[in-house]
Amino acid sequence: MGSNPNPTAMTDQEVEVSLYAARQKIYPRSVSGLFAKWRWFFVWLTQLVFYGLPWLTWGERQAVLFDLEARRFYIFGLVLYPQDFIYLTGILVVSALLLFLFTAIAGRLWCGYACPQTVYTEIYLWLEKLFEGDRSARMRLDQGPWNANKIVRKTGKQLAWIAVGLWTGFTFAGYFTPIRELGQALLTWDLGPWQTFWIFFYGFATYGNAGYMREQVCKYMCPYARFQGAMFDKDTMIVTYDAARGEPRGARKRSADPKALGLGDCIDCTLCVQVCPTGIDIRNGLQYECISCGACADVCDEVMEKMGYPKGLIKYSTQNGMTHGWTGAQMIRRAFRPRVLVYSAILLTIVAALGVSLWLRVPLKVDVIRDRGALARLVEMGRIENVYRVQMMNASEHERELLVSAEGLPGIEVVSDRTVHLLPTEVRSVAVRVQVPPGLASGTHPIVLRLRNADGSIDVKEKTTFLVPR
């Protein structure tokens, strides 16, 4: 037997196996069409609201301001306090039901058109195209060596991205600190620690999510993509590929007859993949990564038009609609199915209850506490007096002139100052002295302290007890 001249050649080799595929950067191709126009409509709409709302004024203050320091939330003419937490709960419940209802009917249209991640990704992609060119130019630039042209283009893009992120962070902080004061503090670099933190934190989050993470947020971070399957059914509208019409796919000349070649309408140009912001192939069926933006439908319609084929190879439809060949009207009628009607009924009920509650909401909050330093005492002419501490909160931006009175016992009356003047949004505590004539049985007796204004628009009654000593 001969010896092995290279003993190390027979040893086990170490092999490194990656458990995770490296992310391949996606270069979405620009697309025009009906759905692209709708996406940009919602980009403009949402950003006009987000960036413009803090600059609106209502009277002498910011129209929408969540003043955490003063613990007051201003929403146009409405002033809410922490005690109004029930309204926030109602809004969250309404938002959840709206999500269920909208998803059951229209799938992930919210994701494709109005989600902040989608909106800011569209803005950042537009800036990227502005500085680096279209899809092929961006790919060549990234693959090419670093030179003066690449440095200038990359630097310009980064500065534009950072500017948009910081302006977004500044606007976000302006919902919690009066934005005009925040702007003056920014110009003099006199920002507080929390304002500085949130401007840079929110700005960095916008820059990172829309500039770099993009589809990764939709695929891996957003929980909506994971549980949407529980809200979908065969009558939910989704972006669909008509496989019966498109298959078998294959390239051909424009003048060729696809039937003679045994081919479907899909020419396998892969443009639907190139325009997809999450990089999926819609021809493989519904996938959780699909955000229903309709970019693939736009570009496919362009191709079908150039080839002389009918549009709609990729379109918004439902699984039942595709299976049974339903018309748009038939699919709309099917949208009003039992689960949708139940969601709608619950949603309308809650919205109506919130609306009625806000309409009937009394802009005065009152809390009555007995004065423990003087529970009950005898005063002149044998009358019995109790002292109460009345905490009042004017939940409006109007001055209030209130009359304080007491009810519930014979001869009961308020002997302290009966008129209370409250400034707008003022919180004030006043001592109220209440007396009754002698002869009342000892023990505690229920009474009512009443606060009302002259025109009767405010009439608040608070129950308490009157103590008669033995």
What are the SSEs and their pairings?
Blueprint: H1 34-52, E1 57-58, E2 61-62, E3 64-67, E4 72-75, E5 78-80, H2 85-106, H3 109-113, H4 116-132, H5 135-143, H6 148-173, H7 179-187, H8 193-213, H9 215-221, H10 224-227, E6 238-241, H11 243-246, H12 258-261, H13 271-274, H14 295-307, E7 314-317, H15 319-324, H16 328-335, H17 338-360, E8 364-370, E9 377-378, E10 384-394, E11 400-407, E12 413-414, E13 419-422, E14 427-436, E15 443-453, E16 459-468
Helix pairs in contact: 1-4, 2-17, 4-6, 4-8, 6-8
The helix content, as a percent range, equals: 40-55%
Q: What is the structural class?
A: alpha+beta
Domain unit count = 3
Shape: elongated
- Outline the biggest β-sheet: 5 strands, antiparallel
| Discrete helix count | 17
Provide mean pLDDT, rounded: 89
Measured between the Cα atoms of the first and last residue, the distance is 120 Å
By oligomeric state, this entry counts as single chain
Number of strands: 16
**Per DSSP, what share of the residues sits in E-state strands of 2 or more residues?**
15-25%
User: How large, in whole angstroms, is the Cα Rg?
Assistant: 34 Å
Regions with pLDDT < 50 over 5+ consecutive residues? none
